[in-house]
Amino acid sequence: MFRFTSRSSKNRGLVPGTPVFVGEKKAEEIKITIVDYDEKNFEIKEAQAVNECFPFKDTPTNTWINITGLHEVDVINELGKHFGLHPLIVEDIVNTEQRPKTDVFDDYIFLIMKMHKYNVESKEINTEQLSIILGKNFVITFQENHGDIFKPIMTRIKNNKGRIRKTGTDYLAYALMDTIVDNYFNILEDIGGEIGYIEDELVTNPTPETLHKIHFLKREMIFLRKSVWPLREIISGLEREESLLIKESTNIYLRDLYDHTIQVIDSVETFRDMISGMLEIYLSSISNRINEVMKVLTIFAAIFIPLTFIAGVYGMNFNPGKSPLNMPELNWYLGYPFALVLMAGVAVVLLFFFRRKKWL
């Protein structure tokens, strides 16, 4: 349930704006990658120290600074001071429990998004927080862990494919956001396959393990919805924002990204409804199975009740000579076979009656 909390106890009692790392350490060491480019030139390097990023604040070229690892708070705090980030922004960057949001300032825009990856083996959605700082000629991204989700963007910049080298940093920020949203579709595809597998299991042979899978998947969908739903507000706000950092030519791409976000949200809501329906199907299947068992037991009881009655009557062993009612079958030579045939006949008649009523 840790992933559903919104604020850690580490921040309690501290002065607002005090950066404290909150979350799980996912990278052993911090890694700083600097990508500097324009329409004609391209350069990429690994920075050994954070001060190597400082000269790129005011360069005429576009610069993408990607920082992996949030546990070294001093490094991020030093970078934030040089680039003029508000202390509350630095605090949000190192707090991985933040809700996706956007904050617009005069000289930069701050974004928080959640990146997800579906673990096929554990059926769990792994998540990490991505923070984006969009400035006039730079974009700074903060990731929790090393990954290759942005490798296609790096390849496009390196090979000068598309319009990414011909546009500004606002288009780069859009490309990063678009990659994250596209990755949501991959996760939904994996979850859709898991839902189909559980549905087949519900129809053929539902077990308590099936119920456990449904509840686990329902919890993961709630967590995914919590991460995806705020994206609609973020992208819509960026589209309407009258900021000089976002050019008019980028708005059309933001509108397309907004449409993709709506599709993701619709898919998430559809899957949630399907999972709720799967719970009802499971309960109905268990109820039908119990009804089938009870029907069989009831039929057996209905057949043996008259047989028990017959056996009870002829098992009273009354002496016909002293009884006011004569029971000649007690001393009859064929009395025992007659009672067996009578009970068998009653059972056959009842079975025929049940089948005629389509109870069998």
Task: Describe the overall structure.
By secondary structure, the protein is of the alpha+beta class. It folds into 2 domains: 2-285, 2-Layer Sandwich (Beta Polymerase, domain 2), CATH 3.30.460.20; 314-356. The chain has 7 helices and 7 strands; from the N terminus they run βββααββββααααα. It has helices spanning 73-82, 87-93, 151-159, 169-204, 208-240, 248-313, 335-356; strands at residues 31-37, 42-47, 62-68, 101-104, 109-119, 124-134, 138-143. Strands 2-1-3-7-6-5-4 form a 7-stranded mixed β-sheet. A hairpin with a 3-residue loop joins strand 6 (124-134) and strand 7 (138-143). Helix 1 runs antiparallel to helix 2 (87-93), helix 4 (169-204) runs antiparallel to helix 5 and helix 5 packs antiparallel against helix 6 (248-313). The two termini are 48 Å apart. The mean pLDDT is 85.
Structural class: alpha+beta
CATH superfamily of the largest domain: CorA soluble domain-like
Q: How many structural units, i.e. domains?
A: 2
What separation lies between the terminal Cα atoms? 48 Å
CA-atom Rg in angstroms: 36 Å
Taking pLDDT < 50 over at least 5 consecutive residues as the criterion, the unreliable ranges are none
Number of strands: 7
How would you characterize the largest beta sheet?
7 strands, mixed
Query: For the largest beta sheet, what order do the strands appear in spatially?
Result: 2-1-3-7-6-5-4
Mean model confidence by pLDDT:
85
- Give the helix proportion (percent range): 40-55%
